[in-house]
Specification:
By secondary structure, this protein is mainly alpha-helical. The protein has one domain. The chain has helices at residues 3-8, 12-20, 25-39, 45-52, 56-70. The radius of gyration is 11 Å and the shape is globular. The mean pLDDT is 94.
Length: 71
């Protein structure tokens, strides 16, 4: 599923709110931006979730937000 498809889902705003409330979210996002994407720019949400041992929803939101910051 693409990020554009996630955005169209009715529960997308709830996922964003939930992820933003996670204690480790800012740290995971910073580490992803500064380390992970430099090593593997095309990492998938599933790979990121497994690598950082985080929920898949958090990985989706982080990659979505970082992608939209760049473009």
């Amino acid at each position: 599923m693409s990020f554009e498809e996630y955005e169209k889902e009715k529960l997308w705003p709830i996922l964003l709110e939930t992820v933003h409330a996670l204690v480790m979210y800012p740290h995971h996002k910073a580490y992803t931006r500064e380390v992970v994407l430099n090593e593997k720019p095309d990492i998938t949400p599933g790979e990121l979730a497994a690598r950082l041992k985080m929920p898949l929803g958090e990985a989706i939101v982080i990659l979505y937000e970082l992608k939209n910051q760049i473009t």
